[in-house]
Amino acid sequence: EWTNKATRRTSHIQKHSDLYDKWYMDWLDRTTSVSKATKLFWQKKVTDNNWPRQPFINSPTFQRLLRVCTREDEVLDDTYWSKHSATIVEEIGALTKIHVNRKLEHARVARQRATEFTWRIGKNNPEVKDLMPSVKIFRNLPLVRSLEKDDSITDLKQTLQSQEVQKVVKSGLQAWNETTRRVLSGKLGFKKAWKPDPEGSGGSGSSATPRLHPLDRMTSLFECKRCHRNGRIFTPTTSLKFYEVIKHRCPKNTLGPTGKQRREWDITNFEPDTVAIRATRLALQVAGEDEERASIQVLSKKFVGDDAYRWQCMTCPSRITLRFDMVAGHAKRHKAQSERDTLATGDEAQPGSGTDPRPPPDTLPLSFSLRFVPVDDPLPEETHEYSPNIEWLMGVAKTAVKARTMKNFLCRHCTFFIPNGAWAKKKKNSETALEDRAMSMDGLRSHLASKHGIAPVRAEDFCCLGDVRAVSQDIVAETEKLLNEVAPTPPVDLGDVILPPN
């Protein structure tokens, strides 16, 4: 009996399995035939009306019709089509326009990337890197612009790398560079085309050095009218040389212009930095150098490094000294402090007087005294680092963040300064006393702001305790003796020198 039940059950399952297989094959044949007929129908529509295939397939109304026909197992024919044909035609037109624009945009982006690739190569080329403007100006050069807009060029990157095109592009860069130099020279007061001295006309002595182009001089300094600074405000140099003018982009926190406007370079945004120019001119005058012939390349031994000239600011209450690259930024600090103090006193004036409490820019009181450190510096090698790289110190690197938290910084406004870099407390000269006065960078900031009214921190405001430990008192005494007896350039005190207006 059990065998009979199993046999009947097996035959029942086999019967229903055969029925399911037959139903499934019928459904598959019917669905396949419906799909083929529907595909032939819309392919004929595409061919007869010459419609682009991809926009037609992506039409939302057409996709909805396909889903309805598939669900109902019905062939798409004119009955369904006639109800929605107008909507489908409109969608095809809109999608075709989007498709064409997207294709053109992809081609444009590819050509733009090829141009930017060539621009980056030029930025790394020693021959033309100083001539390279922003990528936007480079793309607007006549030849580059015409090649970038030429749709017939299949490989723009290879075309731009050819020698013939490179020669024309280089000549275009030189023409743009000359125009820019002429405009900036005019802003400095040189309206006419500058001509170099003829060869052999210099004679002998200091006048034998040829005069430099106005933009190659140390007093060729500019500032951006939009941000009034170059990068971070604690950098030693807050003015722009000619090559920095070309590279300058306003920081993100600049008020007013949008992000796109900040990225756009415009020569009208730059003007002479009058305070930095007058301060640099005064520093050169004190050093006995000719402004028209002094270059940082020739005077690098005098102006660069810890065995170079030092300028002592006689305006500061404390006797701190400056490197040459700190002079301009330090002068701008005095100008800002003078304006703040004058505005504070001007608030107490009677209303309606009609007087502007701010002094005119050409009457900024500022004086410097030259302090020369002999080349034969008796300091050991460990102390040649005059002060840490403040741009690195104020950065976001983990090592810089850790360095700022260490109590390793001394305020130069509270400390005696010995010209060769040695430091000592006013009353105590022991290393323990120096360590007691050391602060972290945050503490130094608060100290400078509260006690001296100075912000932000600049490189001339502090020194590192590590540099002090390497200097013994014997070396200090030897250096003082050397300065008093051997130094060819004694300190020069100009008194209250008013920066000249030009």
Give a structural overview.
With 502 residues, the chain is mainly alpha-helical. Among the domains are: 101 residues; 62 residues, no CATH class; 104 residues, no CATH class. Helices cover 51% and strands 6% of the residues. The strands form 4 sheets. The chain has a 4-stranded antiparallel β-sheet. A two-stranded antiparallel sheet has the order 1-2. Helix 3 packs across helix 4 and helix 11 packs across helix 13. The chain is elongated and about 120 Å long. The C terminus is likely disordered.
Which descriptors would you attach to this protein?
single chain, two-stranded antiparallel ribbon, four-stranded antiparallel β-sheet, 51% helix, 19 helices, 502 residues, mainly alpha
The proportion of residues in beta strands is: 5-15%
Instruction: Kindly report the spatial arrangement of strands forming the biggest sheet.
Output: 4-3-5-10
So how many helices?
19
Helix content percent band: 40-55%
Q: What is the CA-atom radius of gyration, in angstroms?
A: 38 Å
How many beta-strand elements? 10
Largest sheet: 4 strands, antiparallel
Task: Write the H/E string, N to C.
Answer: HHHHHHHHEHHEHHEEHEHHEEEHHEHHE
Global mean pLDDT: 73
What is the distance, rounded to the nearest whole angstrom, between the alpha carbons of the first and last residues? 124 Å
- Shape label: elongated
Which class of secondary structure composition applies to the elements?
A: mainly alpha
Name the poorly predicted regions: 349-355, 373-386, 416-430, 469-502
